[in-house]
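Quick question, first post here. What does this chain look like in 3D?
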Amino acid sequence: MKLILASASPRRAEILRHAGYHFSVLSSAIDETPYPDELPQDLVLRLAQAKADLAAARAVGAGIIIAADTEVVLDGHIFGKPRSSDDARRMLEKLSGRTHSVLTGVALIRLPDAERLCFVETTLVEFAPLSDDEITRYLATGEPHDKAGAYAIQGYAGRYIPRIEGCYFNVVGLPLARLQHALAELGWTEEYFPAPV
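> Answer (accepted):
Ran it through. C-alpha cells below.
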C-alpha cells in the first residue's frame, strides 16, 4: 500500500526518506490561521485533518495519506512562523532560557475506505539563554524564517538546545515512532526493497 505525504515540507520528507519509507508527495496548502481562543492541540489536529482531507480528495488509488502540522507553544501562546526578522527576534527572545512545548498533529487517511487515525504528539524543548549577539548571528543564517518558533533543532539552533523530553523527530515536524505505530494500526505493511548489489 503506497504512502502519500500531504506536505511540501522538505523536513518531513527527509524524516520519512532517512527512515527508509517509500512515498509520494501531494502537497496541501491550506489557511493555517488559528481560530479565536483555539487551543494549540485543537489547532494542530484541525490543520492536519484539513491537509489530509485535501490530499485525499485528489489522490488516486489505494494508499495512506499522511498529514501533519507542528506548532511551538509557550505559556499557552502559539508561535507560528515568523513574518519578519523582527518577529523572529521577538520569538527567540521569549524562548531564550525557557522550556516550551512542540505539538504536532498527525492525520492519516487510508484509501479507498477513508478509515482515519489522528493524534497529537508533544515534546518539551529547553532553550539555553541567548545573548543579543547570539540571536543576531542566528538570524543572519536565514534558518529561522520559515520555521515554527523561528528555529530548527536539526540545524544551527541545535547548539542552543541542551535538553528535550520526548520525540526528537516531533520537533523537526513528524513524530516517527508514533507514526509507524499508527500506520501499522491502519494495516500498512512495508514492501521489501532489497539493497542494491
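The CA atoms of residues 62 and 111 lie 5 Å apart.
The mean pLDDT is 94.
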